[in-house]
Specification:
Elements: H1 6-14, H2 18-40, H3 43-60, H4 70-88, H5 103-106, H6 112-119, H7 122-130, H8 134-145, H9 150-157, H10 161-199
Helix pairs in contact: 1-2, 2-3, 2-4, 3-4, 4-9, 8-10, 9-10
Length: about 200
């Protein structure tokens, strides 16, 4: 059964095969948990929402028509659950992003962000990414970490391609701007320190 495609498993689930449903969960739960974890920044919340997503998945399989890849359809379901969760929460101060954000960009070595992450301290990058609005953070995650195409991201988020392109551009621009501000502040602090040493 493990050799079956997602679509074949779905057909069996619709016929009441619980083992096929278990296998479908095992196949995708890590990726969905990772997505939710990066967007909520809290392990227990990510675990709860991941369970909710797969419960909704079971109830929603009747609506899956195979017009897009199953993974794209599942990512969209997960993104909607996380969006609903955020809407239900009161506004909170920015928190630190999850550990190991280096993986977000490491698979695309040509990106300037990847070079920056490799050269600078991880906690600084985490803080900068955590300050980005969710709408940019999600697009950056799907593009860099999951390596989805613009079209796939559009299907997941249900946003027009032009919006995806704009948000990716603006998200990267914001990240670069924040990064430059950090560098400028570090250089200014270094300059003040050197001047203080000379005056002594």
């Amino acid at each position: 059964m493990e050799q079956l495609t997602d679509e074949q498993l779905i057909d069996q689930i619709r016929q009441g095969d619980d083992e096929a449903y278990r296998l479908l969960i095992e196949r995708h739960k890590h990726y969905i948990y990772t997505l939710v974890y990066r967007m909520t920044q809290h392990r227990e919340t990510a675990e709860d929402l991941t369970q909710e997503i797969f419960i909704k998945l079971y109830r929603s399989l009747i609506y899956f028509r195979g017009e897009s890849k199953f993974t794209t359809w599942l990512y969209r379901l997960a993104a909607n659950v996380v969006t609903d969760y955020h809407r239900a929460q009161k506004r909170r101060p920015h928190q630190t992003l999850v550990d190991k954000l280096k993986g977000w960009f490491s698979s695309r070595e040509e990106e300037p962000e990847a070079v920056a992450i490799q050269k600078e301290e991880q906690h600084t990058v985490q803080r900068l990414l955590s300050e980005l609005p969710d709408k940019y953070r999600l697009i950056l995650y799907l593009y860099h970490y999951k390596q989805l195409s613009y079209q796939e991201i559009s299907e997941v988020t249900e946003l027009p391609l032009k919006t995806i392109e704009t948000r990716l551009y603006r998200g990267k621009a914001l990240l670069k701007q924040k990064w430059q501000e950090v560098r400028d502040n570090e250089q200014a602090a270094s300059g003040r320190s050197s001047a203080s040493t000379i005056s002594e």
